[in-house]
Amino acid sequence: MLVIATAYEFLSLFTFVLGISIAVLAALRLWAQASLLRNLAEHLYIAFLALTVSLWSFLPILSNDRVIHPQWQWLLLLAMVLSISWYTIYVCNRIIPLLAKYRHVLWAGVLLLLIPFVGLLVTAGGDPVWTLTASLVVGLIWGVDAFLMITAAYRLKDKLYILAAGFMVSLAISYAGGLWLTSSYLHLITLGSLLCYVIIVSLAALDNAYLRSMHYMNQKVEEVRQELAAQTENIEDVVISLARTIDAKDKYTEGHTERVSQYAVFLGERLGLSDRSLETLRIGALIHDLGKIGIDLNILNKPGKLTEEEFAQIQLHPALGQQICSPLKALQEVGDIIRHHHEKLDGSGYPDGLQGDQISLNARIVAIADIFDALTTERSYRAALSVDEALDIMREEAAQGKLDSSILYEFEALLLDLGVTS
């Protein structure tokens, strides 16, 4: 029995120190990081719960009688019952309204507990009838706490709350039985269950603080991502609208950019490009002629052959288009398509005279789609060519080393699949 008594006093002291430490840490966390915590209420409950548990657990060390509590011990027990029940209701509030009626039962039990406690206060904690009645009510209340906790734990899929509910069941049984029976083992189980319960709910509070903070951060990140996406979309819409405005000013080229974009994306899919590359193709093809906004419309719409000076002006539009897009981060990836869609593999293109692999795959794809649509649509300086005539011209350019023959081959297969050729 001496060993059990010593173990009980050691466990009481340990619970007291741990409870005070948890209460102080929770209070410091509230004071230092209140604006960052997403579960302020839970930290308040944990601080109050740990404080009441630590004070109650230390009382047996100061008292020679661990069966019938003196008057002041019953007051601390009442405070501990309230703190545990408040925390249980806090957890249950996360699954409103499933446990509303049971919470009302719990509060009713806590109010009924006041009756035997008043009797104990009047009799200075020495009346065995009030002692047994209060013990029974405390055990029942903790039993309801355990039921609510385990129900909430399964609803929330939280293993820590399941463990806490298990120790609450042990606490309810051992406490009620320990006050009816004079077994030191039951008192030891009571204190041990209470210690484990406090540790587990403290861990749950820290876990919830982390999860809620991460959820809050993820929400903020998603909000920023959506804002950036909206800004990017707005920028793209403005630039594409400008390109379409240029397209619409010439009845011969109206709809040209949309068709080139569609051809380019279909061709990119056949070549196995990634979704990101396909999106770059789509945007780049839509605005590949954006630089024409800086070219005189009289030159763009001239019905006859262009002079050398006029053609030199036309050759400026790829570089102008890239310059327009270069300050916009959202459109920097498509700058290569805009600048190089008139380059040729043999170096005879413009504006930079690139050769071979110096021209990106995206620019080569758009170049083929652009040439095909330009040849097969009516222009101010000539009538539209047939599909076969256009392909003959493009095959000849590929044979001369101007166009990528492998991409042209895939493009012809695409036209066949689309029913454009037979």
Spans where pLDDT lies below 50 across 5 or more residues: 65-69
Question: What is the oligomeric state here?
Answer: single chain
CATH topology of the largest domain: Rhopdopsin 7-helix transmembrane proteins
Which structural class matches the secondary elements?
Answer: mainly alpha
Residues in helix, %:
over 70%
Overall geometry comes to rod-shaped
Tell me what you see in this structure.
By secondary structure, the chain is mainly alpha-helical. The chain has two domains: 2-221, Rhopdopsin 7-helix transmembrane proteins (Up-down Bundle), CATH 1.20.1070; 250-418, Hypothetical protein af1432 (Orthogonal Bundle). Helices cover 74% and strands 0% of the residues. The chain is built from 16 helices and no strands. Helix 2 (40-62) runs antiparallel to helix 7 (184-249), helix 5 (128-156) runs antiparallel to helix 6 and helix 8 (256-270) crosses helix 16 (405-418). The N and C termini lie far apart (101 Å).
